[in-house]
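User: Okay, second chain of the day. Same drill as before: sequence in, structure tokens out.
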Amino acid sequence: MENGKIDISYSLQECIPSIFQLLEELDSDFYIYLSQLWLDGYIDIEMRKSKVDFGFCIELPYSKKFFISIYPTNSMMDIYYFIHEVGHGYHNYLKHNLSHYTERNTNNEVNELFAHLFESILIFQLFGNQKDVIRNYLNQLVISIPFNVAIHGFQEKLYTQQYPSAKEKKDLFLDCS
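Assistant: Same drill. Structure tokens below.
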């Protein structure tokens, strides 16, 4: 174990079928939607030189579809990030497809909470019997707490100030971290 990380080598590409199968069992409509996004190229897990080395999910404003990009490293982090980003996609999907879902414009904290809960549920469903994977996942959650607290503090202060300048934003972030 180094820096709280257990060196577990996993291929995201090899785990995709298991992730999709679990999603089919949890919500078959979302599974169909996500499968179509996959086929249409809205999910990018290929390694390229110019690609950013983290994961993200972005909602496309007109189509309300989402795009997921993951920079694969052949580690468990790829799987954690992918499932987390799919969680953001699922949240967006629910916001646009459930008639009784009243809170369509959620803030970043709510979006992150949903994605983290989704991620945890899927990780435990997929790897619950593999103690080394679960221990690694829990270690990563604990390690990320200070960063997440700093981001939350920054966002809270940012929302309460009237249009701070770039320098003020930088100083504000440094104060929070």
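The CA atoms of residues 16 and 134 lie 18 Å apart.

User: Thanks, on to the next one.
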